[in-house]
Amino acid sequence: MSAQQNFQSQPSDIVICSAPKTGTTWLKSLTFAIVTRTTFDDSTSPLLANLSHDCVPFLEVDLAQSSTNRDPKNPLLATHVPYSSLPRSIIDSSCKIVYICRNPKDSFVSFYHFIARLSASKDMKPVALEEAFELYCQGVSNYGPYWDHVLGFWKASLDRPDKILFLKYEEMIEDTILYVKKLADFIGYPFSSEEIKKGSIDKIVSMCSFENLSNLEVNKSGKHREGTPGVIENKIYFRKGKVGDWENYLTPEMATQLDSITLQKLNGSDLTL
Ligand code: A3P
């Protein structure tokens, strides 16, 4: 509520929006690498020594009290807040919004593991998969029901395609180069033909790949928000980075149940997940 009331967006801002566990860490890395590519390359990027969440602040955590503690040279910020709850200044300003979504079955499985690993690191009792699944299906999730979150940004992206770029994790995994180019064009940092010839896009894609980022020392042993109650081991943000891993955790009945909720919720929207 504090961020909602106090945050003042600039026209140059680029706001990365997502529900948790849909590819936020990756999208932050790619966008940060695109925006900073004239200052850093793939051997000097801050992403090699910092988790991307330490390079791109979260609106509702890092900027909740004041927008003045931002680095004036960094136009990027991120949020998990649903579209309907974004600060008015983000909706009204000419800043760009990039949203990423993911198949709900993979997103749920990713979220379940994240919470399990977080609970283990804080000596808390883990939640059973079945219980977490029931809650998820009922819409009991951080930042609200998953489908409402996605539909809020989907509808807004149809109304304002110049302002909101709607991305899917699976499509980005399938053709990352294409989507990095699209992303750069959309946020106003297009690659020149010279850069494309030099392989700048490929370098960013490789640097931000799951394999590369998850094997960096900072992401194997570093901590995010160290010294605060919200401390999280960086490695928890990297698990498998695969499409379809839900098959290893959900029963066919669970998959059918989640699929039918998704079909029902997205009915009439022209969106598939
Ligand atoms: P899995 O748990 O399925 O592996 P978020 O960043 O929104 O918290 O989402 C986390 C999910 O993104 C995790 O999925 C994580 O492994 C995956 N991920 C993290 N970095 C990635 C990268 N560079 N490329 C692809 N997926 C990545």
From TrEMBL:
Coiled-coil intervals:
none
Q: What class of enzyme is it?
A: transferase
Organism listed in the record: Gossypium tomentosum (Hawaiian cotton)
The EC number(s) attached to this protein equal: 2.8.2.-
Highest taxon of the lineage: Eukaryota
A Pfam match: Sulfotransfer_1
Question: GO MF terms on file?
Answer: sulfotransferase activity
Q: What is this protein called?
A: Sulfotransferase
- The segment(s) forming the Sulfotransferase domain are 11-269
Q: Which family does it belong to?
A: Belongs to the sulfotransferase 1 family.
- Keywords per UniProt: Transferase
